[in-house]
Specification:
Elements (H helix, E strand, L loop, with lengths): L11 H15 L4 H8 L11 H14 L5 H13 L9 H18 L23 E7 L2 E12 L10 E7 L11 H4 L11 E2 L5 E2 L2 E4 L3 H10 L1 E5 L4 H4 L4 E4 H16 L2 H6 L1
Parallel strand pairs: 6-8
Antiparallel strand pairs: 1-2, 1-7, 2-3, 3-6, 4-5
Helix pairs in contact: 1-2, 1-3, 3-4, 3-5, 4-5
């Protein structure tokens, strides 16, 4: 067992159990479904991770007010018969861990009058397709993204696999919204993509944009206009981008395009 502290969730196994429970519970799964998933990797009773597993599961269920009697009984049995306190090398930490386990047993015998609320888990799903050209209002004009790739990020829980949206930014703005022919016939398509610095200090053409919540996603997609679709070159679709939060994107584009639009070179080319 890899432990960072003597607390109930102070080790890797306990954190895995807690994370899986909160994720599945947030997805709206039933307790039977949650138990089917988590109990599938339960250790043997005499394994060194058994105590961490059962104490964590009982604790997180108690915190959410959904403690199952069988889980409670199993945790109690394991704590009494297979305590992991002896795994801590120092006598002081061994005593502290045993105290934490005994406090947990006391808690499990009491009612939780202020259980944690179920919080819905947000999972981003991209509404666009590879090749889509998207218009985004910036500095009172329109900037344009080209969706060059969409990847579904792997996760052990299938429902938590989020989409990653990779885009390139055209280095031209327009006063009015352009139609897809402006990109298909080469008027803008022949231009190079914009080299855009990210909030992390990187300077790469290809950006991966993502969002952290439902409201942020809705606010971003509300501003986007789908112009149409232009095929993507294979070398772009294979590229790897850098992380770029939706909420930081608008400010960065505003600063970048503001400087570009006001530059003498841009005015001459226009």
């Amino acid at each position: 067992m890899s432990a960072t502290s003597t607390k109930i969730f102070g080790n890797d196994m306990a954190m895995d159990v807690k994370g899986d429970f909160t994720d599945l519970y947030g997805l709206g799964k039933s307790m039977d479904e949650i138990h089917d998933y988590i109990l599938s990797y339960q250790p043997l009773d005499d394994d060194e991770e058994a105590c961490a597993f059962w104490s964590a599961l009982a604790c997180v269920e108690w915190e959410y007010g959904v403690l199952n009697n069988k889980i409670k009984e199993k945790a109690t049995e394991i704590i009494h018969n297979h305590s992991d306190a002896t795994l801590f090398f120092s006598e002081r930490n061994c005593e502290k861990r045993q105290k934490e386990l005994m406090l947990l047993l006391e808690r499990l015998e009491s009612a939780n009058h202020k259980p944690r609320k179920r919080k819905s888990v947000f999972v981003y799903r991209c509404p666009w397709e590879q090749g889509d050209v998207l218009a985004f209002p910036v500095y009172g004009k329109y900037a344009y993204f080209h969706v060059v790739g969409i990847r579904r990020h792997p996760h052990k829980i299938e429902e938590l696999q989020v989409d990653q949206l990779y885009v390139k930014v055209f280095n031209r703005m327009s006063d009015k919204l352009l139609d897809i022919n402006s990109f298909r016939n080469g008027l803008i398509r022949k231009q190079k993509y914009l080299m855009l610095s990210t909030w992390e200090g990187d300077n790469k053409e290809l950006q991966q944009i993502w969002c952290t919540g439902k409201r942020e996603k809705e606010a971003f997609e509300e501003k986007i206009t789908l112009v149409g679709n232009v095929p993507v070159k294979e070398e772009y679709s294979r590229s790897i981008g850098t992380y770029f939060q939706f909420r930081r994107l608008e400010d960065t584009l505003d600063r970048r395009f503001k400087g570009l639009y006001l530059s003498p070179k841009y005015r001459e080319e226009k």
